[in-house]
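Consider this record:
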Amino acid sequence: MTTIATTASDSGSAAGDTLARDALAVLQPGFDGTTAPDWVRRRIGEGLASVALFGRNVVSEEQVTGLTAQLRAERNDLLVAIDEESGDVTRLDVRTGSSFPGNHALGAVDDPGLTRAVSRELGRRLAACGVNFDWAPSADVNANPDNPVIGVRSFGSDTGLVARHTAAWVEGLQSTGVAACTKHFPGHGDTNVDSHHAVPRIDVDADTLFERELPPFRAAIAAGTRAIMSAHILVPALDPDRPGTLSRRVLTELLRGELGYQGLIVTDGMEMRAISGTYGLGHGVVLAIAAGADAICVGGGLCDEGTVLGLRDALVAAVRSGELPEERLADAAARVRGLAAWTAASRGDAEKTAPDPEIGLVAARRALTVTRAGTAAPVTGPAYVAQFNPAPNIAVGDQTPWGVAAELERRLPGTAAGSFTGEGAGAAVLAAAGGRRIVAVVRDEHRHDWMRSALDTLLAARPDTVVVEMGLPQAAPRGALHIATYGAARVCGVAAAEAVLAG
């Protein structure tokens, strides 16, 4: 785990002066627990303008509502951020699976009105919980289907489609007074490395970048996105030396200058190894603010008071040494406070939106692609659900349940289920299933040789097997019935189970 040193004492004068308040204002830290820690409340009083919620902070919507009320008692215009993309990346529904399909499912339907309605209902729910800043949507064009971290988080591989749905998503969410944060600038779709682990590199020429990666961000800016999140990716056509988050060329010259964006720029998680493992956390934060970032996302891993104080002190020291211009820090803090003021003024907008609690399931049903081989028979009796589990990426996490097993067990009493991974998975499923009809649930079959081999084994022995693909449907459909859901949200599983029963 990355650690940073606290370089200045936590004295009242250090915490109270303008410089220290500005340094606290640009941080968006996380914390442990499901109630507001005393240290967080104390730092809010000293200038902290934002906090971030992660899955560990969420038990229920009622609990989150109580938590945000505790926090806002210290500062009425506090920004409370969350990484709620819906679909595979969910924090509000971290323990159940999302009530909304993710971007790829919405892109598969390609109805911007539906995308707008889904994000509006998501925004209404977030606002009701006291959350007013969402680190979403992903505007990445999924140019590389083997991308280990974006995948179904993208609306698709077509730039125009991604652009129109990014704009619709931003409009729907912000109509409820919740600020959108379009990510990951300048585009994370054509990578084959997860920036949680290392620095991805995109070797495309500038023309490709401007024609393929940037239009969705232009669309988001035109739609009024209140924030844009930087990516920890190296794009030599823009800056051969520094990743986007630390690049003045990317953040100030391109995003601010050429694209004319005037809203908040927030970094992706700074503990990610692409930054902390290369530059160090404290130095990386200083470089990001100097490059043009306004807010620092931190707390997915490091979520203690010492981290906040260490980053505050690193920024203060950088100003005092001349490494970071004081006016750059002041400008960043002012942008954070400006967004906080917008959310405070927009509070109550969500109450003007009529609830639409079924919109997520409606969207998931519309997204399904069902392919039948010959006379595919519906599953009518107890089945065996075999879930093939790839290693989860860090953005999705491993807390959130997925699949169709729970829904089929509810609808078909006597149904059993098991999870499988690695070599020999197919034979293990056949041994466990007995005489029951097999429903094989996969996620990104095209990316995993062992998963493809397991399906080969199953279909050779049991050609009546139903295949449910809950990742990118890049592999050719196969099985007696093949159902592509374009994501693994809870509602995608419900829609898929309905299709299994219908045959």
Observations:
- The two ends are 49 Å apart (CA to CA).
- The longest strand covers residues 179-185.
